[in-house]
Structure formats: structure tokens, C-alpha cells
Amino acid sequence: MRPTQAARLIKEVDFGTPIRANEDMVALTIDGVDVSVPKGTSVMAAAMTLGTKIPKLCATDSLEPFGSCRLCLVEIEGRKGAPASCTTPAEAGMVVRTQTDRLAKLRRGVMELYISDHPLDCLTCAANGDCELQDMAGAVGLRDVRYGYAGENHFGDAKDQSNPYFSYDPSKCIVCNRCVRACEETQGTFALTISGRGFDARVAAGPTDFLSSECVSCGACVQACPTATLTEKSVIAHGQPDHSVVTTCAYCGVGCSFKAEMQGDRVVRMVPYKDGAANEGHSCVKGRFAWGYATHKDRITKPMIRAKITDPWREVSWDEAIGHAASEFKRIQAKYGREAVGAITSSRCTNEEVFLVQKLVRAAFGNNNVDTCARVCHSPTGYGLSQTFGTSAGTQDFKSVEKSDVILVIGANPTDAHPVFASRLKKRLRAGAQLIVADPRRIDLVQSPHIRAAHHLQLQPGTNVALLASLANVIVTEGLVNEAYVRERCDLAAFEAWARFVAQEKNSPEAMEEHTGVPAADVRAAARLYATGGNGAIYYGLGVTEHSQGSTTVMAIANLAMATGNVGREGVGVNPLRGQNNVQGSCDMGSFPHEFSGYRHVSDDATRDMFESLWGVKLDREPGLRIPNMIDEAVDGAFRGLYVQGEDIAQSDPDTQHITSGLASMECVVVQDLFLNETAKYAHVFLPGASFLEKDGTFTNAERRINRVRQVMQPLGGKSEWQATCDLSAALGYPMAYTHPSEIMDEIARLTPGFRNVSYAKLDEMGSVQWPCNDSAPNGTPLMHIDRFVRGKGRFMLTEYVPTQERSGPLFPLLLTTGRILSQYNVGAQTRRTDNNAWHDEDVLEINPFDAENRGVRSGDLVALASRTGEISLRAEVTDRVQPGVVYTTFHHAVTGANVVTTDNSDWATNCPEYKVTAVQVRRTNQHSAWQEKNLEEDVSLRRIATPELVAAK
Amino acid sequence: MSADERNVAKLARMAGQIADFFRAYPEAQAASSVAEHINKFWTPKMRAEVLAMPEPGDPLVAKARAFVRTGEK
């Protein structure tokens, strides 16, 4: 018999050194075969294009050639000696020989030296079967080692096991430098070095162990290591994987491709996929290592129901849970009206799952009360970019940054929140691009190894619009506008109105300095640099959107890019860095209450007709409730039932006590999730969710790239989320007939112009595709707005600075701004259930030494953080990362409750909460806050699960 | 303040914020833009509550109310 399907371990081709991008080609002969390669390509890589593997150890094509191992020697006609093929560029007319008796002898000699100081424990070594040293010993025909093994060696060197995910065994190290170079070139952290000289040379993470060092645990060193020196602990524990599946990471909006390397249905390790266009073989600590939550003991895998939230949960069948939820929703609608129920979709779910939930709401609930978690992060991006450019998405692909000359990072912290993109960005900065950072806090990018921002505009929280107005003022008043571009590409009347507006004295850097706190001279210099420094690219994050003027800021950014001609080609653009993996996708899929997929308003008759025709049901033409509106109306008593898929609004949304008050007022809350999260404490029905390893579908990342998510194990709860949604819809009286998520994507493609040519077959063929992907762009669109804006002419918008209503004062003299940290992700539901806690096991409050001293606060002290909304306690960290008057914390730990303190102030256009500005006071304390005490009690009382009754054996 | 009163006060604040943005535009355009925004993003019930407010504090919101649609169901 033959196996029905060949499960295989995917191994990407390693060319040894990078294939250079060059239109000039050179032709040479290798082992008698003619080959042409781009100029600058090495002889080693040229040989590999023919499938000729030249033995190597220190070379791998993610790194620049190094030439230390002396194994890749070749003979070149007319040249003396045996040059290293990795450091020798291919030249026209070269005649190269890769295998001769002389070369074989030289290579065996090199291998003898390596092996003389290498433990011969291959059979029990974790890298057995995945070791390049082992492979090379075989390739060169090593049969003995003339020097013996009794000489001086490193066999007894102690292992460093401090990192929770990988081990460093110096006895296996061949000092090839690949790990050190990966840390420098790929990751850009420079945490590793070679200490000592000659025989004493060893890899070191500085004068400390790996965990205590600057290492960010991205895994690039482990990936680069050719031996067992740096090895995943999961491989040490389980052995080598035997097959792999390419899928997409479930963390941030970079959307890295990974190979899930498996034994049976057990993940042995996640390895970044070299052919993944978003990450090109790189990873961060979350995607690479923090996947253990998927099989964590806290997973809830059985459906549960309860009548009241104070009752213990009762495990039931899927049919009973779905039936109960449907009957409750129907009862509520019959009693309180059609508008009394709604749903929230999640950016942690696939496009297909999100599409189905919004379809359920519109078709089965019969209203438009569906919203998505992008409401609380990037909804202003959608509004702002659609107003100015005509589409709700970023303009570039990630690769574009390689062509940028000046990079403005505003309200984003890429090294923590989008680390794999940050590595690309840092690489470009090391190569000479200029950096402007606008952030109230000194993020790592401001100054890190080999990178120093030309300008750090350390503005006061809440003054982004003032800062951007003053940058625009300089550009207009100093004649730095790209007039030819504006004349050709933009609405001139809107431009002229904007230019008159920003040129007003009130918008000058000198006038705005009192609001922003940024010296006018710095603003002028930064504006000149952005406008005249070549390709100018803007990258921004939630520090832009999560403000009362979030949408205004997005439009101000778009204005700046248009005025300087920085939209429509490589190296430029306006690039929102999306928080979660599928923020772009969940917005694309029509999960906002006012629009269908593809950003078409529900009042548009032609669009609605199309959906009605395919779905066979009458649809509402009025916008529905957004998340904050749902909660407000729940507190008011009008909104009574909610279906939440994959979101945890009780932790992530602002003003926690208002959110939980709304949830507690509802009669039926259905939570579909991996864990009994904070929102589930207020739920009546729990439906087990599926982790990304159990899903089949697609995610769309921040560069509009649609990537496949492939199932590597069966859903632990016995049902995929899309199937549960279908079952719920059927129970509500609106059956949906899909047999596979690909059919859902086919429907999305039929109904959504930008997705017209998207299909699983297309994605499997191309790997990924960036929308729009339709007849006009059959293979997708890496760069938007090349010849014209999607809306036709780019539209400048007037962006008056309006100070937030949240003001500091005598009672609350400090401004709190919140953010994220590298090792934790969003509400922490995933990362808190991994060893990432080794780096960050609690939320801390950063406070400036000046403010700390005034309050007698030292690092490590427990402090009370109080706002007009609520109070929590957490530990302080005294640091000058934050300026006087500003404090900062994260919201990753539910027990801290950072959002107890944040307010319900929100963006004027979208209701995106103003997480970034809350007036607070800080004082020393020795106890939890009243909310924290109550929360600890409810962690138990609202999460009880009834023990199933014992049934006597018959 | 009841939950209902709090909601109405919040809607008034939100309408005022929308007006704050469009105030940079000529008055007639600003009023219709405020209304257009509310029509596009607010539910009929929320719009009805804005229309039912006795006296919006913001003069631009007051003007915009003439263009705010009632719900069509």
C-alpha cells in the first residue's frame, strides 16, 4: 500500500549567500554547466541555482557571506589557490570547479579540525538528522580524524538553559558566527558576540546569560545555528519533526508565515517560513515560541450554559448550547425588539469566520448590530484613509521600507508591537535612512545599537494633530510642497483650502509648542527632513488612532504625505501598523455596523441588492450599533443579547466598570473563545473556540496581504468556529450551507470587488496575495495609488487641533498613556499562558524620576493609579523613558485591570477609545484597589464549573 | 443622572465632537457634513435622540439637526 498523502518536512532551498537584485547578469561555467546570475551573486549561490551544493558551514542565504569555515573552497581557472565560493562574486567568463580531488582533500582536512573538538554523540544529540555539521561530514567523506579526540576541547563547557525556549550548548559550537550575524543582520539587536580569541572563542550573550541579556528571543540565532549549539527545548524534549504545514502566525498584524513542524498532531516547533512574503524567514518571540497556549490546560473544550452569571457553568452538548443560545436570542428579540441583540467579531479570527458572524447578524438577527475589535484600535485608519485616499488600508508592502530615505514613526513602537517589521526597518536605518520618531515616550527605536533617530519629537499625549499641523505649516510656508505632484494627483481646491489653513500663524511650530511641548526648531528641522530627504515613509500605530482626534490625525498624516508627493511608489506611503493579526481582514469583511465587505455602506441600494439576492433575505439599510453604543444601550436596558467571538471586551475595552455593567445587564451573552476570559464571567453560553493551529482560513495583514491559515490539528472542542456560527445561524432560522472555509472565501470573492480573484487555489499557487486582487490586478496589488488615488484625486482635509476633553488638573495632575510590550500580546490570554511571562509577568507603571521623587515612589513600590473613572494598584518602575507629567503602563494582565482607569472618551468620527490620554494621580499604597479585590473574588465566583453528576455503572 | 440621561448627554458630547471637526469648514458645508456623518454612522435611535434634544449646546449641532434623517425601517 502507498500512503494516501505524502506528509513531508518542508525544507527551503539555501543558496548559501543572498541572490542579489541586479538587472545586469553575468554568465559563467560551473562544473561544465553554463549559468547566468545577477551581478554581485556569489559563486556559491550561482552553483546552487544549478542545484550544485558546495559544502558549507558558515554560510546561509539569510546572511551576508563571511568566509570563515573554509569548507566551500572551489577552483577557478586562472586563479591561484582555492578561493571561498561564498565570498567570491560570480564574474563573466569564470570557469569554476566545485569537486576535485584536491578540494576534497582540503575539505576533509577542515572537517577533521572541526570534528576533533566536537562531541561524537550524534545518536543522542537533539540535532540528529537536522545538523549541517553531520551533513558536511557525510558530504566530504570524513572517515577518521587524524588528531584524535584526546586533545584540548570544549566538551565540558556548561550549557546555558536560562532562556525558556532554547538551550545554548557551547560544547557543540563551531564558532561559525552565524548566530552572531543573525542577531545583527536579521534581527538587529546585537545581543550576541564572540568572546575570547583563538581556542577560547565562544558565543556569548554579553557578560551574562541569555535570559538576562539584551536577547529578545526572536529565534534568529537558533534558526541560523548549523549544529545543536542553539536548539529549541521542544526539539530536545520531543525529537525531530517529521512533517510540516505552512500557516500564518496568530499574533500581530505583520502576519508572519511559519512552518508548523509536527510529529503526528503535535507541534514540535514553529519555524519562520523563508518564502513567506511578510517575514521572509524571520520571527519574534511570540510567533516563534509562544504557541503553547494552544494546548494549555485552561482551554475549555466543552460547550457550557448557565441561567445566571452567578450560577456555575454546566457542560452540555453542542446541540444544547447552540439551541439554548438561539432560543434566548429569539426570545430577547421577541420581547425587546429586533435591535436588542448584536455581535462582536474578532481580529484574532479568520476572514471566513468574521464574514460569517456579520452575515449571521445581518441575515439571521435582521439588523446591523455587528462590530469588530478594530473599533477600539484602527477604526480611525479606515475612516481617515478612506476620506483622503479613497480606501481603508495602508499603501505599501513591508518590503517597500528598503527603498525609504526618511522614515517618520509616529505613535508606534515597532520593536515591541511589530517586531519582525521593526527588523526590516532597522536594517534600512543601519543602511543610512534617516529616522524621525514622534512619541511621548522614548521608545527603543529612538536609540538602539547602530540607530539613532535624527529627531525625537517627544510631544505631550493628545497633541498629535497639533504636531502634524506644525509640520505641515513648515512644509507650506517654507515652499517645500511638491507642487507638481499635488497639481497632477490631488483635488486642487481642497489642497488650497488646506494650505491656507495650515499656513496660519496658529499652526506654526512656535505657536503649537505650548501644546505639544516640542521645541519649534526641532519641528522645523524634522519637517524639512521629511519633505526634502528623498523617499519619505510614515509608519503609525495606535498612538495615532486611540485619541479623541484619532481620525483627524490619520487625515493629517495623509495630508502630509500628499503634500510632499510621498504616495504611490516604493519607499514612501502611509502605513498603519495593525495591532492584531487580522485587523485589516476583519475590517475588510464587513464587520463594521455601517458597511458590507469591501467598505460599502449599508444604505447603498445596489450593494444591498446584491447581498440580498445572494443571501435570499431582506437586509437593513440603516447602520447598527458600534461596541460602545451597544454597551451604553445595554446599561440603558435596550440592548440585551450579545454574541462575542474571540474578543475579551471586559479586559480590552476602556472604562472596565462601564463595560462589565453593560454585560451584566444583558440577558444572553454568548462567548466563543479558547478560555474562560474576563468577558466570559458575564456570559450565559460558552462555545469552545479553535486556536490558529486548529483553523482553516485566511488572515489579512497590515500590508493587505491575504495569507492562508492551515489546520494542523483537529479543533479541540470538536467543531470549527465557522461551523458553530453556521449551526447558530441555522438554529436562528437562517441556515448557511458551507462544507469548507474555501466556499466562504468564494462567496466573499463574489460579493467583494477587491477580492474578486481571490480563492484558496490562487493563494496556494501564489503563497499570498495583496488586495485588490481582481481582473484589474489579477495577482494583487503590492503598492496602492500608483498613478491615481482610489478615490480619483487625493483629498486634503482640514485638521484643526481640538484639545481632548480629558485634562489633567490638581486632582489628577499626570497623563497616563497605555501601550504594549514585546513578550505579551493584547489582553495576554495567549501569551500569559506561555513562558513569555519570564520577561513580563505583571503590568508595571513607568514614572519619571521627578514625579516619583515628589511622591516618594521607588522602583518596585506598589502604587495606586487613580483616574476620574477608577483606581488600580500596580508596581512602579522609575524611568526617564517617560517625561515628567506622563506615566505609562500596559494592559496585558487581567488582574491589574489597566482599563479600569481609562475613560469612555473616544474619537469623534469612529468612537475609537482614547486609551492614550487619561488624567491620573499616583500615590504609594500597600493594598490592591477595591476593584482588584472584587475582581479576584469574581475570578472564582463567576467562573465555577459544575462537576458532572456521577452516573452509577450498570 | 439616569442611564438614559447619561446616554443622551454622551450623544450630545459626541455630536459636539463631530461639530468640532467640521467647524474648520465654511458654515453651510460644516452643518451638512455634521449631519452626513451622523446619518452615516449613527443608528436611527441615536439620531432620534439627537433630534429630540431640547437645546443642543453647540450651535453647529443645532444647525446640523435640520439635515439629520429620521430612521427608515
Characterise the protein shown here:
The complex is a heterodimer of chains A (954) and B (73). Chain A has 954 residues and is α/β, with parallel strands linked by helices. Chain A contains 29 helices and 36 strands. In chain A, the strands form 10 sheets. In chain A, strands 13-12-27-26-25-14-15 form a 7-stranded mixed sheet, covered by helices on one side. Chain A has a 6-stranded mixed β-barrel with strand order 31-35-32-34-33-36. A 5-stranded parallel sheet of chain A has the order 20-17-16-21-22. In chain A, a hairpin with a 3-residue loop joins strand 23 and strand 24. In chain A, helix 8 packs across helix 25, helix 10 runs parallel beside helix 19 and helix 13 packs parallel to helix 19. The two termini of chain A are 43 Å apart. Chain B is mostly helical and 73 residues long. Chain B has one domain. In chain B, 68% of the residues lie in helices and 0% in strands.
Mean pLDDT, all residues of chain A? 96
Instruction: Tell me the total number of β-strands of chain B.
Output: 0
User: What is the terminal-to-terminal distance of chain B?
Assistant: 31 Å
Number of domains of chain B: 1
Largest sheet of chain A, in brief, is: 7 strands, mixed
Q: Name the poorly predicted regions of chain B.
A: none
Give, in order, the helices and strands of chain B: HHHH
Q: What separation lies between the terminal Cα atoms of chain A?
A: 43 Å
Biggest interface: chains and residue counts?
A-B, 35 and 25 residues
Shape of chain A, please? globular
Please summarize the sheet with the most strands of chain B: none
Enumerate how many helices of chain B there are, as a single number. Answer: 4
- Judged by helices, strands and strand pairing, the structural class of chain A is alpha/beta
Radius of gyration of chain B: 12 Å
Q: Percent of residues of chain B in helical segments?
A: 55-70%
Quaternary organisation of the protein chains: heterodimer
Shape of chain B: globular
Strand content of chain B: under 5%
Strand arrangement within the widest β-sheet of chain A reads 13-12-27-26-25-14-15
How many DSSP helices of chain A? 29
